[in-house]
Please model this.
Amino acid sequence: MQIYKVGGAVRDRLLERPISEVDWVVVGASAEELLAQGFRPVGADFPVFLHPKTGEEYALARTERKSGRGYGGFTFHASPEVTLEEDLLRRDLTINAMAEDAGGRLIDPCQGQRDLQEKWLRHVSPAFAEDPLRVLRVARFAARYAPLGFRIAPETLALMRQLAESGELQALTAERSWKEISRALMEPRPDVFIRTLHDCGALRELLPEVDALFGVPQPAAHHPEIDTGEHVLAVLRQCAEHAQPLAVRWACLLHDLGKGMTPAEEWPRHIAHERKGLKPIRAVNTRCKAPRDCQELALLVGEYHSHGHRALELRPSTLLELLQCFDVYRRPQRFEEFIAACEMDARGRLGLEQRDYPQAGYLRGAAAAVRAVTVQPLLERGLEGAALGEALKRERLRALETYKAEALGEPSDPPETPRP
Model:
């Protein structure tokens, strides 16, 4: 039995990056031998085991053969006769097909170290095109390593296009797709992930509602980048630069889907795109099986981001309705995420990335003002039921009127409102 460190741990050590987890491959052993040593199987039909003490994954060296559609359409062969090189050749990218032995010696049959030095994401073999999930994985690696100057090899991008055109992407389960999409959105350059999928034709298959935004113009006066797809990419980049959580990034990806439904004869205006966008946002949420918090925030940002941009112009009654929609009394964090998404939207415009967004502070202050209104004095007056609700609403509205007067006064030069 010989054990080798493989994959990401080897790659990231050579890149001098933090190593989050270590995977191992076992050559010259059988499943029975690992079980006898206390290893725990991950699944009944897959040769991967957890170390009895460290919990790290140990996989038997194996080969794979395409036997059906999709990510799971493979049969594998694991036996003591499978060599390390054979196991490495089944992997996706050359930079992921390296191994180290116990003495730290590098085994690199696919020239992964050279591609690391030259900053190429390159497939190992034509078998790459047999697994549709690899399109998403490569796009995710591009998003992770773009700050280091990595780019996808032309021949690999060609295979990704081939996979996108084959219809194989439709065989991916929502769970597998979401796992890759959500991880990619949290990489340093999530915009590179979406652009890569768009460039190879995969975005049209996986997220056609987002793909439809490319080539759709917006008014240049408010959106110097003009193209709606480019705007969404810029918003995602702002999300990464400001370390926004996944729910905010997901909402920002989907916030302008309504603009993809605007008839061409109405361009570059997009009247009522917020309301029009709710149906495609729901469709994407459902198809991707996004977590509930991501789904809820995406719908709220899609419907109300224009309100966020016009916050300083809103009447107190409209502002109160907005705060009520977000339930700022019991779910303050969701409103904070809404504010963050609005700010990323405003900053995701060409040349305006550093412009202040005073709406953020104003909205936070408004939420604090209504939360400061207590119900106890109304209860002491004997109010209850509908009368109590109406009185509480009046008190909150009065608090917002006072807040607006104190916060804004009579500004001589009101801040610029980013148009949706």
Summary: Residues 410-416 have pLDDT under 50 and may be disordered.
